[in-house]
Design goal:
Strand content: 25-35%
Order of helices and strands: EEEEEHEHEEEH
Shape: globular
Radius of gyration: 16 Å
Number of helices: 3
Strand order of the largest sheet: 1-2-3-4-5
Structural class: alpha+beta
Length: 161
């Protein structure tokens, strides 16, 4: 069995599309909208426009589905950001991004949005708590936490080309 790979594609102004190809050669994509909603799509060939099923979920519905797919742990030491009005999202840095090769501090993200980059996923490893001199690269996926408005603003800043 091949390990599934999830491919992320930034959709400027919309969110991010994540695509997973199954062993049966079907493709499942999830579009994460900036308003917290999700659109689930299933297509049966290499053309994502040939969608056989498309289902739009509100943020609460997506959360309910996620709890079935990956059940919550009952550990009291786990922090659920939603309990505090916070959210965490992945924001990709495109190879054509204005920020490709620039220092994280140049974004002034925390000052401008109140949101924080808590980790960067680069290739096969995570870089926790990157500092202001950390250089962003195309292909990086930033883990951003903040309020809905702060994360939306972070998308706007980080998706600059």
């Amino acid at each position: 069995m091949v390990t599934p790979r999830l491919r992320a594609t930034p959709l400027p102004g919309i969110g991010v599309r994540y695509e997973l190809h199954t062993n049966a050669r079907d493709a499942l994509s999830v579009v994460t909208h900036r308003d917290g909603g999700r659109t689930l799509n299933v297509h049966h060939d290499e053309d994502p426009d040939s969608c056989g099923v498309s289902l739009r979920l509100a943020a609460g519905e997506a959360t309910a589905l996620a709890s079935v797919l990956v059940p919550d742990h009952d550990s009291p030491s786990l922090l659920h950001a939603g309990d505090f009005g916070l959210m965490a999202e992945r924001i990709g840095v495109a190879g054509t991004s204005y920020w490709n090769g620039r220092a994280l501090g140049e974004t002034r993200l925390r000052t401008r949005t109140g949101a924080s980059i808590v980790a960067v996923l680069r290739r096969s490893h995570a870089i926790p708590s990157p500092g202001p001199r950390f250089r962003l690269r195309g292909g990086d996926v930033l883990i951003v936490i903040g309020t809905r408005d702060g994360v939306d603003e972070a998308h706007t800043i980080l998706e600059r080309t």
